[in-house]
Amino acid sequence: MSPTISYKDSSRQRRPAGYHQSMDMQIKPPPLTVCGDNHAETLGDEDTEALLQGPNLPAYVVPRGYRAELGSILLLLFLYVLQGIPLGLAGSIPLILQSKNVSYTDQAFFSFVFWPFSLKLLWAPLVDAVYFKSFGRRKSWLVPTQYILGFFMMYLSTQVDFLLGDEGKSPDVVALTLTFFLFEFLAATQDIAVDGWALTMLSRENVGYASTCNSVGQTAGYFLGNVLFLALESASFCNKYLRFQPQPKGIVTLSDFLFFWGAVFLITTTLVALLKKENKEVTPSKEETKGITDTYKLLFSIVRMPAVLTFCILILTAKIGFSAADAVTGLKLVEEGVPKEHLALLAVPMVPLQIILPLIISKYTAGPQPLNTFYKAMPFRLLLGLEFALLVWWTPKVQHEGGFPIYYYIVVLLSYALHQITLYSMYVAIMAFNAKVSDPLIGGTYMTLLNTVSNLGGNWPATVALWLVDPLTVKECVGIQDQSCGTTAAAEICTKLGGSCVTTLDGYYVESIICVALGFAWWLLFGPKLKKLQDEGQSSWKCKRTK
């Protein structure tokens, strides 16, 4: 419903299992599984069952409770909080840009910033395979990446006001996009390293806490970088709720926020580099010892399997119907006068719902046909797209001098809650299906590939939806005859001549109707085909290994 909603969790997925190969020592790769039409080829001569075995732990290791590893758990939690900061900041930029009246074409260009977390599979094998053994497999990437992030944030703090267009200038959207794309690329690389380290930092008895640290830490970091920042950056919010004397600016500026967290990154990274040692007792499993080239060959061979290829095509097009509602609605509400910090704060009461929903929905997706839940939830989510369009149309009609009435925010909150129910129903169903069909022999790589495709299926329609808003919008120049407002240059001429550009047809409404129509067409034509994939035998998804 807003950038803070649309992009938050769509790009997080489990990274592939590690690929143990250091710059100090090369380890002979195991047999390579090459998937195909119900057959596979194995390159090598090692035991095929060994891939299923876990790490070789000494027999004398005594199980440890979580209290014995509380320091490691807290460190993981904090590393994931740091990871959420760049995600939250990137999610706040579209709202800031919208308040500066940038075009939706510019918003579409900036949306590429959210792609790195969905594409990290492309360089995850490199992060897992190349490292300095003497320094540590995960620290070899975590420490330099976080140092770069820290220095980058501190430098960006001196430039961000200029990039956002201070002193009445227009924002430099191209420079902002390139800057934050690099920002998110570094954060995604840090995510790969932290995810890998989480598996060895904790003992086997406590490794389950890693996923808790991930979800709680990243959510907290996103909240700090998005919701809290937007609230403290807003002069109106601070003057109304936090100050006795009004001030022209908020308590925190974006440059202050970047500088502070840049310093936190540098201090934390230094402490981790000096004080935290990696666990050298853990021996990587054979799935973790593939070479880089073998890993990419494996990914390509998985995609070539007919069932996987069909799934990829279907899931890459399944979310077209939601693109206008998910990517544009929040920006339209800001355009209509809803304060961006109020829109961000609506995410706070949704946190309990977001925690409870997966637990409830998983009861319906745990069976043999999880995609039935996806199929049933889809039409309700499509109809909510029309409800969002009505909400945007209704917004200026209830606005008054003091802002918006309480009942308006209640309606927005209820709409958001219904949206979350349908969104999580589809999300949990897809994750359950991916886990169900992933070949356990290469589970990490296989499931990460499927999740990556699912995430890309949401990213590209959002970018296209933002880009299409301006071309579909019709404006006319009022007050000047024979003058149009079809382009930015024409609109400027209209204004200079004393006229004004008035929107006669908002492209958002056109796009909303088109998207919902395309979504229902997909649901009727291709929805049954997606459900039918559940009837495929296990041999259609598994990579068989032969000597």
TrEMBL record:
Reactions catalysed, semicolon-separated, are: acetyl-CoA(in) = acetyl-CoA(out)
Q: Which Pfam families match?
A: Acatn
- Protein's membrane topology: Multi-pass membrane protein
Q: Where is this region: Disordered?
A: 1-25
One of the GO biological process terms: acetyl-CoA transmembrane transport
User: Keywords in UniProt for this one?
Assistant: Endoplasmic reticulum, Glycoprotein, Membrane, Phosphoprotein, Transmembrane, Transmembrane helix, Transport
Give the UniProt subcellular location, in the record's own words.
Endoplasmic reticulum membrane
One Gene Ontology molecular-function label: acetyl-CoA transmembrane transporter activity
Q: Which residues cross the membrane?
A: 73-97, 109-132, 141-158, 178-199, 220-237, 257-275, 296-322, 342-361, 373-394, 406-429, 441-462, 507-526
GO CC, alphabetical: endoplasmic reticulum membrane
Oligomer status and interactors: Homodimerizes.
Regarding protein family, the annotation reads:
Belongs to the SLC33A transporter family.
What this protein is called in its record is: Acetyl-coenzyme A transporter 1
UniProt lineage: Eukaryota, Metazoa, Chordata, Craniata, Vertebrata
